[in-house]
Design brief:
Layout lengths: L1 H18 L5 H30 L4 H6 L5 H5 L4 H6 L5 H5 L1 H20 L8 H29 L5 H27 L4 H11 L1 H9 L14 H17 L4 H10 L2 H8 L1 H7 L4 H30 L1 H16 L1 H7 L4 H29 L5 H20 L2 H8 L1 H10 L1 H11 L10
Helix pairs in contact: 1-16, 2-8, 2-9, 2-11, 7-8, 7-10, 7-11, 8-20, 9-10, 9-16, 9-19, 13-20, 13-23, 14-20, 14-22, 16-17, 16-19, 17-19, 17-22, 17-23, 18-19, 18-22, 21-22
């Protein structure tokens, strides 16, 4: 029995040590950068449309403003610039990563503040220009912040880094969403935008307090030929030369595929099950957010404690299993308690799986061109899942809600099987 007690003690000690990572100064700074990353995203995707409607714009014009989110999908196009080109003065003073971050964050803060002083009802063009600028600068900030996070942490710390950035990100979403709308009932919108801009220095201070990541073999480009060869071609070439590169790309696409499809149909499902807006707000949009944040923290601990691939397996199994809970919701009479169990458990599992998955994507990046490869991987993942999720409504109509969620659970199987393939090879990047 003695060996069992000793093994249990070692197991508990490793767990406690894994949880201690969240007290690390780097993790705290990464969380603060996440706040600055999440705030402008929700501002452009949600709060902006609410403000435009209060200013009297018609729905057609407001719909066109959805285009300001395009830079988030196309950021891989200019990520090589951030990897390879220096920022005058700032790169020399702060380094490549921090120099670019500050160069982006200052005009981003100014653009958010300026947006509140435009009058879209009188002249929509200045509003459109500044909103597009906010979207572009916000996506560019994400490129740099992701690169800093990846390069500051070791592989077994990437889960905690993913959890920290996602936790901070969601706080930023709350500030720009619920916080901004609440404030707008009491002060003019110009003051609301100034208040949002005043939150951006949180990320700037975090960047300045963080150390500049070690550059490795990465060098700034001296001419256009070097930039194309080292900044554009080399990231693709290095990745595709790795063992099982294609299998890895399929895994990136499929790991959270079931979650992506079920998430697309979540709100229509709640409506069909006759849950009210208040029910959904309480269960999904408030307490559900807390469950997600607990999940991402747990995912970070799991990566540190058990290792990356084991954490991915556990996360994948939990994501599939919790999708089955919605079969229970679909087959039951509307009961808030049943919905709460399904949503909160699913959000926890989704958060845990996301932390492990972001850690995996981070580990895939060669630090010679972190910004470019991470932007490419996340854009590929987002575009692929969006495209593959488009038939989800037709699938529901063909099979019914309970069968639909059962199928989304089965969609996790290919991703889990690919883990057994990936684990047999060294998927880590090689220096070029």
């Amino acid at each position: 029995m003695g060996w069992i007690v000793q093994a249990t003690d070692n197991w508990v000690q490793r767990l406690i040590a894994s949880m201690a990572i969240y007290a690390d100064r780097r993790i705290v700074l990464i969380a603060l950068m996440g706040v600055a990353s999440g705030l402008p995203l929700l501002l452009t995707l949600s709060t902006l449309s609410y403000w435009l409607r209060t200013q009297g714009l018609d729905l057609g014009a407001i719909g066109l403003f959805a285009a300001v989110g395009i830079p988030y999908s196309l950021k891989f196009l200019w990520a090589p610039l951030i990897d390879r080109l220096p920022v005058p003065f700032l790169t020399r003073m702060l380094g490549q990563r921090r120099g670019w971050a500050i160069a982006i964050q200052i005009p981003l803060m100014a653009a958010i503040a300026g947006l509140g002083f435009t009058d879209p009802a009188a002249d929509v063009l200045p509003t459109a220009i500044l909103a597009t600028l906010v979207g572009f600068l916000s996506a560019s900030q994400d490129i740099v912040i992701d690169a800093i996070r990846i390069e500051l942490l070791e592989e077994d710390e990437q889960g905690a880094g993913a959890a920290a950035t996602q936790g901070g990100y969601r706080i930023g979403l709350l500030i720009a969403g619920a916080g901004a709308l609440l404030l707008s009932d009491y002060v003019p919108w110009s003051a609301v935008f100034l208040a949002l801009a005043a939150c951006m220095p949180i990320g700037m201070v975090a960047v300045l307090l963080a150390r500049e990541p070690v550059a490795g073999e990465r060098k700034t480009a001296r001419n256009i030929g070097e930039f194309i060869r080292d900044g554009v071609v080399a990231p693709f070439e290095e990745f595709l030369k790795r063992p099982m590169a294609i299998a890895i790309l399929f895994f990136v696409l499929l790991y959270k595929f079931g979650d992506a499809i079920s998430g697309t149909m979540a709100n229509p499902f709640y409506a069909d099950m006759e849950y009210t807006g208040t029910d959904i707000a309480i269960v999904s949009k408030t307490a559900g957010l807390l469950a997600t944040m607990i999940g991402v923290v747990a995912g970070g601990v799991l990566v540190k404690w058990l290792g990356l691939l084991r954490a991915l397996v556990i996360g994948g199994i939990l994501q599939a299993a919790t999708n089955l809970l919605f079969c229970w919701v679909a087959l039951s009479e509307p009961q808030l308690a049943i919905l709460a169990v399904a949503v909160w458990t699913d959000n926890f599992a989704g958060g845990l799986g996301s932390a492990a998955f972001v850690a995996f994507l981070s580990t895939l990046c060669n630090r010679d061109f972190t910004a470019t490869q991470y932007a490419l991987l996340t854009s590929y993942m987002a575009f692929g899942r969006t495209l593959l999720s488009t038939p989800s409504g037709y699938l529901v109509e063909a099979v019914g809600w309970a069968e639909f969620f059962a199928l989304t659970a089965l969609l996790a199987v290919p991703g889990l099987l690919l883990i057994s393939v990936i684990r047999k090879v060294d998927f880590h990047p090689r220096q070029v």
